[in-house]
Amino acid sequence: MKETVLTRYRVMAYVTAIWLLVFTGAIVAKYVFEVGDTMLISQIHGVLFIVYVLFAFDLGSKAKWPFGRLLWVLAAGCIPFASFFVEPKVTREARALIAGTAAPEPVKA
After folding, report:
1. How many C-beta neighbours within 10 Å does residue 13 have?
2. Residues of the chain above pLDDT 90, percent
3. Which residue has the higher pLDDT, 30 or 108?
4. Mean of pLDDT over the chain
5. How far, in Å, CA of 33 to CA of 85, rounded?
6. Residue ranges of the alpha helices (H) in 1-109?
């Protein structure tokens, strides 16, 4: 697994999380304060979430995660603030995996 796979996931995890917070704020403004419209924000978040799912699936398949683990990471993209807690843990584990697979093999005599 390459570092670029992890970087793509990390960027989309944060971008999606921020847009989910924006979308949540827009929903609150619309239904509590009766101000604003959520159509454009929801569409942007939807597209970003699809990209997040693709990158998370790519990372999970390369890291050989079990299906339950992948669902846990994908669910973090649906819950406000969850990605800010899940992403660092995923990054630590993926970096350890990258460091473990990137080590040079010993030379056989």
Report:
1. 25
2. 57
3. 30
4. 87
5. 30
6. 3-31, 39-63, 67-76, 83-102
**Exposed, middle or buried: residue 100 (CB in 10 Å: 0-12, 13-18, 19+)?**
exposed
Residue reference for tokens 């101000």:
35
Q: Report the alpha-carbon angle 41-45-46, nearest 5.
A: 115
Q: What is the pTM of this model?
A: 0.82
> Max alpha carbon distance in the chain (Å)?
75
Under a CB-based contact definition with an 8 Å cutoff, are residues 1 and 62 in contact? yes
- Compute how many other C-beta atoms are within 10 angstroms of the C-beta atom of residue 108: 4
For 27-39, the pLDDT digits (tens) are 999 999 998 888 9
Give residue 47's pLDDT: 95
Q: How far apart are CA 20 and CA 41, in angstroms?
A: 9
- Looking at residues 52-75, what average pLDDT do you find? 91
Length of the chain equals 109
Cα→Cα distances 25→14, 76, 92, 93, Å:
17, 18, 30, 32
